[in-house]
Design goal:
Pfam families: HTH_Crp_2. By secondary structure, the chain is α+β, with helices and mostly antiparallel strands. The protein contains six helices and 14 strands. The protein has two domains: 109 residues, Sandwich (Jelly Rolls); 92 residues, Arc Repressor Mutant, subunit A (Orthogonal Bundle), CATH 1.10.10.10. Helix content is 30%, strand content 34%.
């Protein structure tokens, strides 16, 4: 379960949250604040009251989490922040965002953005979506070793399914298919890509 504490920095009152892997933080309009990832990687999803779910982005350290709400009296959605690794968040009032930006380290930030998500979801074929997701994750979050690429974030079947719009049984079947051809290995909810070129070719070959 997420844990929290409060702190004061440069006259800014803020709260810190610790999310263990797969913990979720729900953001409603009534509790809307601005969040910064101090450490970790999260996937942000927009969830509607009819239970439809759309993953917006996957982001990491020092990113500001933006979860805007419209100005209507009633809204039919909320946001979910799910940790893919052990994550620490800093929460503070929206009016303090400019002060916070001044203290964020100016480093290269990794982000699988809304536009990347659209590129994934534009595929009608779930296999295509999965492969496209893995290729993007390897680019943004992959650890390149001599003979493989490790995507060092926790990706359960449910998490992958929620990102690309599929159920866990379909994800399990597709991952086992890729393992059968020795393209990837799935172990303890982590993915190892053995051959990125073959994975890309497999995507093209199965595009129809």
């Amino acid at each position: 379960m997420p844990s929290s504490s409060n702190l004061t920095y440069s006259n800014i009152v803020a709260y810190t949250y610790k999310l263990n892997t797969e913990d979720k933080l729900i953001v409603h309009r009534e509790t809307y604040s601005t969040y910064i990832i101090i450490e970790g990687i999260v996937v942000i999803s927009k969830i509607f009251t009819n239970k439809e779910k759309f993953s917006i982005c996957i982001i990491d350290q020092y990113q500001i989490i933006n979860t805007p709400f419209n100005k209507e009296n009633q809204v039919n959605y909320f946001y979910q922040i799910q940790a893919l690794t052990t994550t620490y968040l800093l929460s503070f009032p929206n009016k303090e965002i400019q002060k916070i930006k001044n203290i964020i380290p100016n480093e290269n930030k990794q982000i699988l953005s809304y536009y990347h998500m659209i590129e994934i979801l534009i595929h009608k074929n779930i296999r295509q979506r999965l492969i496209h997701l893995l290729i993007n994750l390897s680019e943004f979050f992959g650890q390149y070793k001599k003979t493989y690429i490790l995507i060092n974030i926790s990706l359960s079947y449910n998490t992958i399914g929620s990102i690309i719009g599929a159920n866990k049984n379909t994800i399990s079947k597709l991952i086992k298919e890729l393992e059968h051809f020795k393209i990837i290995t799935y172990k303890k909810q982590h993915i190892i890509i053995h051959d990125l070129i073959t994975l890309s070719y497999y995507q093209q070959r199965n595009s129809n």
